[in-house]
Amino acid sequence: MRARIDVRLKAAVLDPQGAAVSEGLRRLGFEEVTSARVGKVIELELGEGVADAAAARRRVAEMCDKLLANPVIEDFTITVADGPEA
Prior knowledge:
Layout: E1 2-9, H1 16-27, E2 39-45, H2 53-68, E3 74-81
Antiparallel strand pairs: 1-2, 1-3
C-alpha cells in the first residue's frame, strides 16, 4: 500500500520561498503569476502492518502529527492507494 502526503503552510503563515518563486517567475516574463505557495510531497510505501486503507490513513496521520508536518504552521492531506501509485 502506498501513501502520499502533501504538506503545505497554512494560509495565514507567510511563505518567503513562495514569494521568491512568484517574483522569479514574474522576472522571467510570466506576468500572469500573482502568487505562489511552496510545499512538500512525501511518499511512503507501507508494508503488511496495516489492514486496510482506513488503518493506513490513521497511521500516516499519526506520522504526520509526530514528525512529517508541523501542525502549528502546516496543513497536510493524505492519499492512500492499494496499487503502485498513490
